[in-house]
Amino acid sequence: MSTNLTPKKILVVPLDWGLGHATRDIPLIHEMLNAGCQVFIAAEGKHAALLQQEFPDITIFPLPGYRIQYAQKGKFFGVKIIQQIPKIIGAIKHEQRWLKKIVQEHQIDAVISDNRFGLYHDSIPTVFITHQLLIKTPFGGWIERTLQRINYSYIRRYSACWIPDIQGDNNLSGELAHPATLPATKTTYLGCLSRFEPQENVQKKYDLLVLISGPEPQRSNLEKMVLSQIKDLHLTALIVSGKPGTPKQVEIAPGVTQVNHLNATELNKAMLAADMVLSRSGYTTLMDLVKLDKKAILVPTPGQSEQVYLGEYLMEKGYFYSLPQEKFQLKTALEDAAKFPFKSFQQQDMTRYKAVVQDFIKSL
């Protein structure tokens, strides 16, 4: 525990883009609490519900997210996002006004912003967390270079940039977090960030664990595909629908159970008890899979260039089997994955982030 007489007050704010930003911040929050800090969170909707469930004693400030709307068809994903850039810029400006008020009212000592661009401050240390120094788009070329310049222009306003990946060639994010040039700010690789812990001798319970996540309408699209196809297969399976705050459990076929949400402890156990995981190629999910050394079938969110890149990159490395949603057939995917020569991700230090957080707190 910290020996400081007055606990340091740290505000943590995850991006509202899927649940991954919220879940990967959980180990960081635990480390801050273990160091005796008083932690505040800013979030809304299902992100607030998830974090309140994990940290019932922490104050959560209501802060609107970017509230991005997503295209029904993957090929329009990038265009839909670009159309909403003015709305994102407006949200960033609101974040700036909101942060100045909150820092003054609650005497905040530091801010940890997980990929939210407007939470820098002139008077206190602020940290920007991202695994996307290079932002992938369906268009590539000058558009990606322009987005990187804009990205870096915001990152440079923060005191530090924390990257949840491993430095060097044996990494999980490829060129996303290992571009040719890093932003001109203090940059630190955290290693993999996962709230889960490996356990020995866990008894198998499921042939397949399905983790459905990500933005609508694609979350529901994948869910419908899985539910319609899994009933004809003779296997034991658990489907987690990624809808925190709305409890539900139903048996949809013999041996196949669907739940809306599992907390961290329950999901940790379910992943360890499954022979195979089927999920999006969201980066936080990938870090969880790597830490638990699980085999997985990845179905990138259609049109989300980052997930498409990660699926292809990690399949080429042999770590996971990946296929596009438009070609998804569950029976065929399971058969192909059974023949895929999975390689285990060479285990690195999965607790590096703890030292980074501790050093940061000592500097406050």
From TrEMBL:
GO molecular function, one term: hexosyltransferase activity
Superkingdom, taxonomy of origin: Bacteria
Keywords per UniProt: Transferase
InterPro entries: Glyco_trans_28_C
Classification via Gene3D superfamilies: Glycogen Phosphorylase B
SUPFAM superfamilies named in the record: UDP-Glycosyltransferase/glycogen phosphorylase
Residue ranges annotated for the Glycosyl transferase family 28 C-terminal domain, each copy included: 224-351
One Pfam family, short name: Glyco_tran_28_C
Keyword Transferase: yes
PANTHER family: GLYCOSYLTRANSFERASE, UDP-N-ACETYLGLUCOSAMINE--N-ACETYLMURAMYL-(PENTAPEPTIDE) PYROPHOSPHORYL-UNDECAPRENOL N-ACETYLGLUCOSAMINE TRANSFERASE 1
Protein name: UDP:flavonoid glycosyltransferase YjiC, YdhE family
Species of provenance: Chitinophaga jiangningensis
